[in-house]
Amino acid sequence: MDTPPTWLAALRGRFLVFDGPDGSGKTTQFRWFAEFCRTNGETVTDVREPGGTAIGEQIRDILLDTANADMSVRCEMLLYMASRAQLVEQRIRPALERGEIVLADRFISSTLAYQGTAGGLSVEEILAVGRVAVGGLEPDLVVVFDVDERTAARRMGMLLDRMERKGAEFHRRVREGYLQQVRDRPDRYVRVDAIADAEEVARRLHETIRRRFSESARVSR
Questions:
Q1: Residue 57 near residue 45 (C-beta atoms within 8 A)
Q2: Largest Cα–Cα distance of the chain, in whole Å?
Q3: Do residues 178 and 144 touch, judged by C-beta distance below 8 A?
Q4: Cβ contact 77:124 at 8 Å
Q5: Terminal CA-to-CA distance of the chain, rounded, Å?
Q6: Do the Cβ atoms of 97 and 142 come closer than 8 Å?
Q7: What 3-state DSSP class applies to 17?
């Protein structure tokens, strides 16, 4: 049996978010990384947004239902935050307190990109509501899987939910929103080029996380 990577131990009690535009492949990487951690002996709590709790899954159904095409951006934002509040209280904080690795498929970074940059709500409004929803909790790292809009559209195919149907210009703004967050918060965000095949993206992801948390461990000492 291979020796587990030493850098994985640095992730215990840490909160990592995998994020990016629809079609970026982030959910595949999220699943693979959670399995990689478990295979190497780590305890992982992995959650998705919106959802992850019984209440959150009901909110998810409302948000992604194509019948709700007239939902306002402000209503969207508040529903996402409501799901997130339940998720943090019920699953994320308890897992962090137990010293587990916590992985989330989306978090406030998604709201900033979709309802903020693309939807027109201000960063200040979103962050103010976010502080109430999550009680000041911040991820230790947000990994943004970056992919151009044409590649993303090809990957998504025809079966699209309400958010995925918003059109090319909307998704262009979403991508720019994520890249702006990476530029603004290099202490908390990293970009991973996700245009390559999934195996190569996974290799880049592992190297990025290894480097980030190896550096953190050295600084803390």
A1: no
A2: 54
A3: yes
A4: no
A5: 30
A6: no
A7: strand
Sheet holding 141-146, edge to edge: 44-48, 101-105, 15-19, 141-146, 189-193
Decide if 119 contacts 76 (C-beta within 8 A). yes
- Using CA atoms, how far residue 148 sits from 31, 174, 202, 210, 217, in Å, is 22, 11, 18, 26, 33
- pLDDT tens digits, one per residue of 171-221: 899 999 999 999 999 999 999 999 999 999 999 999 999 999 986 654 444
Half-sphere exposure of 155 toward its Cβ, with a 13 Å CA cutoff? 19
Q: What is the mean pLDDT of residues 126-140?
A: 98
Please tell me the distance from the alpha carbon of residue 171 to that of residue 150, in angstroms, as a whole number: 10
> What are the chain's domains?
6-220 (3.40.50.300)
What's the token pair of residue 119?
């939807």
What does the block give as tokens for 70? 């007239």
HSE-up of residue 124 (Cα within 13 Å, Cβ side): 0
Number of Cβ atoms within 10 Å of the Cβ of 167? 9
